[in-house]
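Example record

The entry below shows one chain as it appears in the dataset: sequence first, then structure tokens.
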Amino acid sequence: MNIRKTLRSLHRDIGYFVVGITFVYTISGIALNHRTDWNPHYTMISEEISVQPLQKTEFAENEILTLMENFSYQPKYKKHFVTKSGEIKIFVEEGTVMYQPQEGKAMLEVLKKRPFFFQINKIHLAQTGRLWIWISDIMAFFLLFVAISGLFLLKGKYGIKGRGLWLTALGVLIPLTIILFYLA
């Protein structure tokens, strides 16, 4: 049996298998690389409203619900309490409202999960439990196999003994350079 032919078949079939997971890792990897520019997990909804100032500090649930009808974003009320400073902190689904009755101001802040990105980022970071960690480890093994087998598919000046050696060395040198000069 020809080892190069067997290697080519395995490389091709395993390569096809890992393509779908690689797409997910690529999209989430780009999102996570730019987390200083945006939050790849959540989007923030902020809204401030002005209402009639009130001098009272105790509010019933129905009064809070009436206040919250003034927001264009309609969060789901959970509970509220009065802080030591006299503000009303209102807990809503995925966020809070800070209400200053004496000043007639209320500020809503809600963190919403980004659809699709929240889920794929959890997968990318292996934050979904033991099963995914095993799948991720198998995926890493398959990627390693595809990378190593790919080194030996071509012969001659384009193979690992020619240009392939230099390109592989460059691929190893770039992350090593970053580690040595920027992360040390």
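Notes for this example: The beta strands are 42-50, 77-82, 88-92, 95-100, 105-113. The longest strand covers residues 42-50.
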